[in-house]
Amino acid sequence: MAKRQSLINRHIMKQIRVRNLVWLSLVLMSISFSGLTGCKKGGYGSDNNNMPIPYSGTFVKSDSAVTTSASGTLTASLDPGTKELSYTFTWQGLSGNAVGMHIHDNGPIIIPISGFPQATSGTYSGKATLTDAQINDLIAGKLYGQIHTENYPAGEILAVLTKVNAGGGGGGTPPPDGGYTPPPSGGGYN
Fold first, then answer.
1. Are strands 143-149 and 60-61 parallel, antiparallel or unpaired?
2. Long-range CB contacts (within 8 A, 24+) of 129-138
């Protein structure tokens, strides 16, 4: 009788193990399937196409011939769904009043800006819609903002837009690999 009971117990235990394996397999397949359906197709580097992607840059002198103590930041946010770039220029300490301001794409002006304060310090915000090619150049670090002054009509300061890291870092100075083309000294992109 004890031997028979032992065989029954082993059989029951085997059935429980098989049932647990089946349930575990179903759970794992369910998780895998939900992970696959959550994948996005395309996008501009955001984990969620509905979330704005932040960019920033720190103003530096536009050219080695420029002598300035001006500083500031250019912050931006890209909405991947609408392709709208919201931006804010903040500057202080220019050698003269700001007379021109815009965003370049590796040289050419793509976002001309008007209505900004024509002062040595200030803040200006605006929005523009980018093309797919311009968004790809933004991702590649080829977009930069520039401020022109009375003393430096070819541009006193510029800031290259780079993606802000999850830890808040990013944005900065022109990349060492020449990921932008500053305007030529003595005359350039108005």
1. unpaired
2. 129/82, 129/83, 129/84, 129/85, 130/78, 130/83, 130/84, 130/85, 131/83, 132/83, 134/105, 134/110, 135/44, 135/78, 135/80, 135/83, 136/44, 137/105, 137/106, 138/55, 138/78, 138/85
Residues 81 and 26 in one domain: no
Task: Report yes or no: 88 and 123 within 8 Å, Cβ to Cβ.
Answer: yes
Report pTM. Answer: 0.67
| Model confidence pLDDT, tens digit, residues 52-111 | 999 999 999 999 999 999 999 999 999 999 999 999 999 999 999 999 999 999 999 999
Q: How many domains does the chain have?
A: 2
Q: How many CA atoms lie within 13 A of 184 on its CB side?
A: 3
85 and 156 fall within a common domain: yes
